[in-house]
Amino acid sequence: MKPENIFRKIWNFYAEGFREMGSWGRQVWIIILVKLFIMFVILRLFFFPNFLKSNFETDQDRSNHVLEVLTKSK
């Protein structure tokens, strides 16, 4: 079998599955996509700010801070 033939069969398998999916399946996928959007976009913006960019002016300052934190002995 050619590799492109295998990929085409995999693609057709999933495409046919999504085409034959009922209305409940589409609603479930919409819920999944909304949850992923909330997790990766909204939460990142509000709860995970860019600490290095906001606290250090230059790339050199940022790299020095990271190096200091990583090599600090406990």
Describe what you observe in this structure:
With 74 residues, the protein is mainly alpha-helical. It has one domain (3-71). Helix content is 82%, strand content 0%. It contains four helices and no strands. The protein is elongated, with a radius of gyration of 23 Å.
Comma- or semicolon-separated keywords:
single chain, 74 residues, mainly alpha, 4 helices, 82% helix, DUF4492, DUF4492 domain-containing protein, transmembrane, transmembrane helix
Instruction: Report the sheet-strand fraction.
Output: under 5%
Biggest beta sheet attributes: none
Which whole number gives the mean pLDDT? 86
Distance between the termini: 57 Å
- Total count of helical runs of at least 4 residues: 4
- Rg, Cα atoms, Å: 23 Å
Number-wise, the strands total 0
Structure classification: mainly alpha
Into which percent range does the helicity of residues fall? over 70%
Return residue spans where pLDDT drops below 50 for at least 5 consecutive residues.
Answer: none
Overall form: elongated
Element-level helix/strand string: HHHH
User: How many domains make up the 3D coordinates?
Assistant: 1
Layout of helices and strands, plus pairs?
Layout: H1 3-20, H2 23-47, H3 51-55, H4 59-71
Task: Give a short summary of the structure.
With 74 residues, the chain is an all-alpha fold. 82% of the residues lie in helices and 0% in strands.
